[in-house]
Amino acid sequence: MTGKYESMIxxxxxxxxxxxxxxNTKILDLIDKQGGSHIRTDTWGKKNLAYEINKFRExxxxxxxxxxxxxxxxxxxxxxxxxxxxxxxxxxxxxxEE
Length: 98
What we know:
Elements: E1 2-11, H1 17-33, E2 37-53, E3 56-69, H2 73-82, E4 86-93
């Protein structure tokens, strides 16, 4: 069953703009390879964190909206967990109005 999702990632603040774009492209490619489709990306830029994470006080926020088979979300979460550039992440299933 395909669902509509929102995923926020916080990247390490010491990355270059090219590294940030490359990491988001990897994520969007992974979604595409899993049979999903990208809806849009909101880039919030560098923001202060509410608390220190991995010795960082700032992070670069990116939010992706996409559709993906519910059973394939685990692969996306796995990518987030093993990527050192990503210091926090979440995936939220959005309610779809009928």
